[in-house]
Request: fold
Amino acid sequence: MKQQIIRLLPAFVTSALILLWQIIVRLADIPLYILPAPADVIRALFLERHSLLTHSWVTVSEALLGMAIAVLLALVLGVMMDAFGSFKACIYPLLVVTQTVPVIVLAPIFIIYLGFGLAPKILTVVLMCFFPVVISFTDGMAAIKRSYINLLRSFGAGNRQVYLLVKFPAAFPSFITGLKVAATYSISGAVVGEWIAAQSGLGYYMIRVKNGYMMDKVFACVVIIILLSLLMNKAVLLLKYLVMPYTRKHKI
Amino acid sequence: MKKVWLSIIMMLATASAAGCSGENARKAEEGGSSPEKVTVILDYVANTNHTGLYVALNQGYYTDAGLEVEIVEPTEGATATLIAAGKGEFGISYQEDVTIARTADNPLPVKAIGTIIQHNTSGFASYAEKGITSVSDFEGKTYSGWGGPGESAVLEAVMKAAGADFSKLNIIISDGSGFEALKDRADIMWFFEAWDNVKAEMNGFPLNYLELRQLDPRLDYYTPVIITSESCISENPDMIRRFMAATAKGYEYAIENPESGAEILHQYAPDNSLELLTASQRFLADKYRVDTDTWGIMKDEIWDNYTGFMVDYGIIKEAIPAAECYTNEFLPAGKEAAAAAQR
Reply:
């Protein structure tokens, strides 16, 4: 009984907060152009479901493509940094620097060189997502006990076997942790990319409805972004469940 | 615990129903001499549209009117919302924005009280070498805009009028790209002549430019305009009148002295070169108050024209009377001029 209550507690707290939001907006009579009530947002979600769906599709494809490139880049850079110490010394600080440059500075440059299509949005996703993956992956490989590798070497294993048999499996848990962070960022990364320049996508939709003082639709769009981000996060957990069966202690 | 909730609700309630510089106005009445604090929220970073405001601030016109004015630049275009919420007394907005705000599902209680420039000095710009010399050349081109509600309707209307196929224009929303992007990435952008064209010219970037009001007289709407909230109008009309008188004086100064007007603006907008500001100021000097004796004055006809346009193109659901969107009553020339304009 007690356990059930504990399990339901998060849902209860969230519902209570939403209810409180609804009550405050109505009691204080806050106008729609400042803060919409949850009921307004739900109504907007329903009325706008078709536009939201088509724009979501665009944003999700940008996020997925960006993630794919980010992961690929992270794997290649990660292995290279692990294999060559001097390469790591040169690149690692630069990777940190890429995370400190505000996107608003890069935006005009992206447009000039990549145009208004999908490319600048995908690049924004890559820029935001590859960092957590590459860092966690490299650190995971660096943390392996030297004795494991020595054991393999003593059996005459080459570099390829060292990576395949020890380093990759051992670094996989931390790789997944980085991937989880990246996946959660990927949708908002694509939205930020759409703010720079777009003709479709959730970021584009959001600018249009904001300019029309339709805050209920802006919030409906935010709800979709939250749901999609959670979905991406869950997808990584599913991947972990499939690839690492030995960690299936908990249900997902 | 109950008290905490109540106070939170009360706080939010007062925040949303904020009046017009309530506290300060009361203080001024009590103290007599202390100036009223007034906040002006610009539409964008400071530029030559705002010169009159900065002149009035710099030359002490506001102080003489018993006002302590602070001018703030927003990072995001939420000026009308901020004015409606009482976060500032005056804002810089556009006719289109005011009409849309007034006809939103939950209308914003804002009103235009003066236009800064008499005519719409914006239009469509393209790189000269692309040979886009008329609207019919827009077919198959890429237009880069900001996602305003009426934007695509304006394009559709002018292309239709020229017999061009609007569906062949590629429209995208973009932020943060200047005239450079007209070369490679986009073909057409909406430019404000006093700023963007002057900038392009200074950088030796040749433009083809199609003035909006030449394409369709309905598009000669007021941009930018000064707005205030309805609570200010009902609570403190005298303050608005004093503010507008001082502001008008500031713009008259900019009309008479474009060079020193630019120099004053430069003190507040030091990121822009004085050269650009002076060139822009020279362009605007005879535009602020062209065709009229009273700076800031507006006409029903202009409001009705563009409101009708927006209804035709489904940007707003139904027409709204011009009188609900603007008033001339706070301009220094007062009611006689307002009546004359409507005649």
Observations:
- The interface with chain A takes residues 8-9, 12-13, 16-17, 77, 80-81, 84-85, 100-101, 104-106, 108, 142, 144, 146-149, 170-178, 180-181, 184-186 of chain B (CB under 8 Å).
